Amino acid sequence: MKVSVPATSANLGPGFDSLGLAIAMKNQVIIKPSKFHSVSLKGEGANNPVLKDNNMFISIFNDFYHNLAVRKRHYRFEFYNEIPLSRGLGSSSAVIVSAIASAYAIEGIKLEKDKLLNLALAYENHPDNITPAVMGGFNVATVQDNEVRFINKAIPNILRAVVVVPNRPISTQLSRKALPYKYSKEDTIFNISHSSLLTAAFMSEDWKMLRSASLDKVHQKYRMKQMPELFDVQKTSLRSGSLMSTLSGSGSTLFSICFAEDARKIEKALKSKFPHFKVFISDFDNSGVRVEI
Ligand SMILES: Nc1ncnc2c1ncn2[C@@H]1O[C@H](COP(=O)(O)OP(=O)(O)O)[C@@H](O)[C@H]1O
Ligand SMILES: N[C@@H](CCOP(=O)(O)O)C(=O)O
């Protein structure tokens, strides 16, 4: 059995804890029946001892498997990870979503995507990463009465992501602590209006509107101060032709959207100015979690 989940970019500037989309890079797990429990890791995190000894996937999988399985078995878990850890590309959401989907699928129990999303909410209580991880595409989401309410839209193939991944991680938990406790009325109104405009731009495919609509006063400047080079990455990307350029999730990745024909030029400008960062072009993902039995 194989389960794959895409990377995500949350917030998209002003849509803090609400907007998010899925990128075509993924974490994949292959699960096979085995005489003993065993784990193998390839790709991102392969040399991280925590992922071998205290793996978040295994502990969430067990939370569900122990309740669902009529007869418990041992499995071999083979992880192929493309999503870097703690870089704001939703690695934790991918793990949560894939672990829950795997526990149901291995027992042959059908799990609707809406239910999976709400089960994942117990592990990550902001919906801007888990929603695109499950559904793919662009998503506007909120939580009401412990349920995710969302609207989803596919991202057309005329667009590409240009992704700049710094060599240093930022933990989401710590990055949330860097934010102010209170916001002024002006900053609040600024973000509500920009987030609304950005959502309308995605829904109506008005791509020229992304640049002004993606401005934010709530989280980026506070977080990017921890890695001031990110301000320069953002400027370089916008000057080279990106439609928008925002901190991805809580950082440290800087994420840009552009027309497909501009992607190479933007990638080249970023690579030559920031040779110590990983820069690449990616498609978007409109499918979300995939389970192959
Ligand atoms: N492939 C993985 N396998 C197991 N656990 C993972 C994996 N990727 C991420 N994690 C867990 O998620 C944590 C990172 O979460 P977080 O700081 O929210 O970063 P991100 O922005 O990438 O979601 C890691 O410290 C680890 O506990
Ligand atoms: N809205 C959250 C998103 C965190 O995304 P991650 O990919 O960094 O985990 C936040 O901004 O804290």
TrEMBL record:
The segment(s) forming the GHMP kinase C-terminal domain are 202-275
Q: Which UniProt keywords apply?
A: Amino-acid biosynthesis, ATP-binding, Cytoplasm, Kinase, Nucleotide-binding, Threonine biosynthesis, Transferase
GO CC terms on record? cytoplasm
Which positions fall inside the GHMP kinase N-terminal domain? 69-137
Q: Which PANTHER family match?
A: HOMOSERINE KINASE, HOMOSERINE/4-DIPHOSPHOCYTIDYL-2-C-METHYL-D-ERYTHRITOL KINASE
- Record's family? Belongs to the GHMP kinase family. Homoserine kinase subfamily.
> Which protein, by its recorded name, is this?
Homoserine kinase
Q: Which organism is it from?
A: Poseidonibacter ostreae
Protein's gene? thrB
